[in-house]
């Protein structure tokens, strides 16, 4: 398949690109779209064949449900059994933006889109191109992250081309993603509500709206064998480079001393300024005490690890709060939960 590429540049030419991409979506085709979190691999969420094609293009297990993207709140009621008051309060505060909410689905949403579940995950993205495409397509868009299953989520068009060129109909390049980590996923189908995947909407922020919301099981620890993941995506090995990754909780000095004592070939996934203290190959993923910069840079850094062909990487973790929790959640998965404190 020939993959078309469209560029959104903030000029009147964007109109033609958005129209062409929306026409493909209306015709049931696969189009990679930019969002403020990560790029999404979009198709008509109400078309079972289009949803099925997403799974094939990504190589995604068919029981891992897709997020349905809407552009305005009036598109939500037809997709769900009921809209609880809590949803309106969350939407008022966090939509459009990096929050996905799980609700009971209506019959309008095909089970091909929800991986066979009777719930549906819904998000209203903030990125202007994503919103324009949903509006122009005239249908809600199912869109998982636009990476091959198992590899880090894409935060720029280059990552999408590397993974999906020849497997999708078009890629819309809207520049680098602002946040860089996937949305916060929370469920209103549990009592109390739970955060299943942390993101830029943090637990503290969500608690300002829903005082009783909790972190779901599996966010910061490996789920025991046989325990069903509330969010099927959390059970798969994720974000993992081919290299073995080991997390190291340490300040700069102790991290440098620890690495100096290691033998063999390895690299460091580290924070800006660490390179001067280290003598191994270094990949910087963000700045110390700046979780937003770490979120922004992490997935590109994970892709660089494989390009560098390193067999082993020690990743320095900076225990920041807020979106730092989401960074730590992704690092844990990249490391297969291997971590140490020095
Ligand atoms: O920021 C994002 O959320 C990006 C952009 C494109 O919107 N999308 C994204 O989609 O990260 P994906 O498919 O890579 O991750 C969706 C996660 C998966 O872990 C999936 O299992 C979970 O949400 N999920 C989706 N629908 C669900 C449902 N009905 N119940 C439980 N978990 C669900
Ligand atoms: Mg994903």
Automatic annotation (TrEMBL):
GO terms for cellular component: cytoplasm. It catalyses: L-threonine + hydrogencarbonate + ATP = L-threonylcarbamoyladenylate + diphosphate + H2O. SUPFAM superfamilies: YrdC/RibB. GO terms for biological process: regulation of translational fidelity; tRNA processing. Residues 15-201 form the YrdC-like domain. Its main location: cytoplasm. InterPro entries: DHBP_synth_RibB-like_a/b_dom (IPR017945), Sua5-like_dom (IPR006070), Sua5/YwlC_C (IPR038385), Sua5_C (IPR005145), T(6)A37_SUA5 (IPR010923), TC-AMP_synthase_SUA5 (IPR050156). It comes from the Bacteria. Its EC number is 2.7.7.87. Keywords: ATP-binding, Cytoplasm, Nucleotide-binding, Nucleotidyltransferase, Transferase, tRNA processing. It holds the Pfam family Sua5_C. GO terms for molecular function: ATP binding; double-stranded RNA binding; L-threonylcarbamoyladenylate synthase; tRNA binding. It is found in: Cytoplasm. L-threonine binds at residues 37, 69, 123, 143, 183. Coiled coil: none annotated. ATP binds at residues 60, 64, 119, 145, 153, 197, 239. NCBIfam families: L-threonylcarbamoyladenylate synthase. Required for the formation of a threonylcarbamoyl group on adenosine at position 37 (t(6)A37) in tRNAs that read codons beginning with adenine. Belongs to the SUA5 family. PANTHER family: SUA5, THREONYLCARBAMOYL-AMP SYNTHASE. This is Threonylcarbamoyl-AMP synthase. It comes from Anaerotruncus colihominis DSM 17241.
